[in-house]
Amino acid sequence: MVLNTIKDANFNDKKVVIRVDFNVPIKDGVVTDDTRIKAALPTITYLLEQGATLIVMSHRGRPKGEKNPEFSMAPISKRFSELLNKEVKLAPDVIGSEVEELVKSLEKGDVLLLENCRYYNEETSDDLDFAKKLASYGDVYVNDAFGTAHRAHASTEGISHFLPSYAGFLIEKEVKYMAPLLSNPQKPFVAIIGGSKVSSKITVLESLVNTCDTIVIGGGMAYTFLKVQGKEIGKSLLEDDYIETAKSFLAKAEEKGVKVILPVDHLCGATFSEDAEPVLSEGEIKGDLIGMDIGPKTVELITSEIKTAKSVVWNGPMGVFEFDAFSKGTLEVAKALADCDGITVVGGGDSVAAINKFNLASKISHVSTGGGASLEFLEGKTLPGIKALEK
Questions:
Q1: Residue 112: inside a domain
Q2: Phi and psi of 135, rounded to 5°?
Q3: Phi, psi angle pair for 85, to nearest 5°
Q4: Are residue 212 and residue 359 in the same domain, yes or no?
Q5: By C-alpha distance, which of 348, 344, 322 is closest to 333?
Q6: What is the CATH number of the domain that holds 62?
């Protein structure tokens, strides 16, 4: 997969329409986590240094096609301006004569942030007339919003039909680390897939079994696989509808010679709550106990695989890491990834949250900025926002 990137174009005296992902948490009108804004700054700074004028687009929340001040980009505009150390003008709308006049009045090096592009249903329906209006603001289009690349929206896919289109540094980095995992990973390649449900991760497992040497299955989804193996799982999470799917996956892995690691011991609780007293269960889970985390023997199995790996991808926690008493398995896996000499990629909201919770992000080769997008990428799906940028 080869993308047109911003290094391939001349932006001097060009108006650039750029899609970013500034969908950040806000409390009392103040941005509480500016990670996503910071992540887009290298691309934005580069474009300005090249002599561009920027028209910046993003969504925030789910205003459902209505102009709702609760979802305004105003607080983001303020924080963006502070981080960029430059005035960012906020447009009163996304389209319309007022916005057109504002765009016309921009001078070289100016930055204009449009209002929430999801104020219009035409954005999420990938309406081409709406996309054409957005495209009319500039000479070139740049996409650096990996978090929305799996959506065919007007500002991510539609607009690329009307302007020369390029990937920003963030999208370029995501593809650089993720694409080889599906086609040509450095081996041994270990995938660690966790989370609560088989139903949300089975497609990823079925995709990765084609390139992996070892697949580790943890989290709540592991109990459905253990049930297939005839193990007692107590009152742990079980997806009856996915028993046959889990069975056929294990058979496929065996046929391909892929090693599958499932938990061999468990930290359990009598109730699914933060105050539950952790009980260690070896092998099987008896009675009414609920599996909430992997035990020390499982941690050892996983960490020894990570130690010798040349590529590791991790998506989904090993247990209920939000509860401190059941966060150890996830923490130990995170630490092992941080110590790994190979290429380490972490994708998916919860795994990224875990890496951040334990302050290990700087020791990981690549921490993905897109939860749903990184999952769909690993599933081998075509991401419309990325396809639009291919050479």
A1: yes
A2: -65, -30
A3: 60, 45
A4: yes
A5: 344
A6: 3.40.50.1260
146 and 242 both lie in a single domain: no
**Distance between alpha carbon 105 and the CA centroid of its chain, in Å?**
36
Do 111 and 24 reside in the same domain of the chain?
yes
> What's the one-letter identity of residue 306?
I
Please tell me the distance from the alpha carbon of residue 327 to that of residue 334, in angstroms, as a whole number: 11
**Tens-digit pLDDT profile for residues 205-223:** 999 999 999 999 999 999 9
Quote the pTM value.
Answer: 0.88
Q: 10-residue block means of pLDDT along the chain (391 residues)? A: 93 98 92 90 98 97 94 97 97 98 97 98 97 98 93 96 97 92 93 92 94 96 96 95 96 97 97 95 93 97 97 94 93 95 88 85 89 84 90 87
From 151, 172, 193, the end of a domain falls on 172
Find, among 75, 71, 119, the residue nearest to 93 by Cα. 119
Q: Is the bond preceding residue 188 a cis peptide, omega within 30 degrees?
A: yes
- Which pLDDT value is given to residue 371? 75
Q: Which long-range contacts (CB under 8 A, 24 or more apart) does 76-81 make?
A: 76/22, 76/24, 76/26, 76/31, 76/37, 76/113, 77/113, 78/31, 79/24, 79/30, 79/31, 79/34, 79/37, 80/22, 80/37, 80/56, 80/113
Q: Which of 172, 200, 216 is the last residue of a domain?
A: 172
pLDDT of 312: 97
Count helices and strands in the chain by DSSP H and E runs: 14, 17
Residue 76, token pair as written in the block: 């983001």
Token readout for 387 is: 């396809």
Tell me, yes or no, whether 157 and 252 share the same domain.
no
Q: Which residues are catalytic?
A: 36, 197, 349, 372
Residue span of the structural domain in which 83 resides: 6-172
DSSP conformation letters of 42-55: HHHHHHHHTT-EEE
Q: Are residues 254 and 224 in the same domain?
A: yes
Q: Is residue 384 one of the residues assigned to a domain?
A: no
Regarding whether 315 and 193 lie in a shared domain, the answer is yes
One domain for residues 22 and 141: yes
Contact in structure between 328 and 293 (CB atoms under 8 Å): yes
The count of domains in the chain is 2
DSSP structural state of residue 13: T
Q: Do 100 and 223 have their domain in common?
A: no
Provide the residue type at 356 as one letter. Answer: N
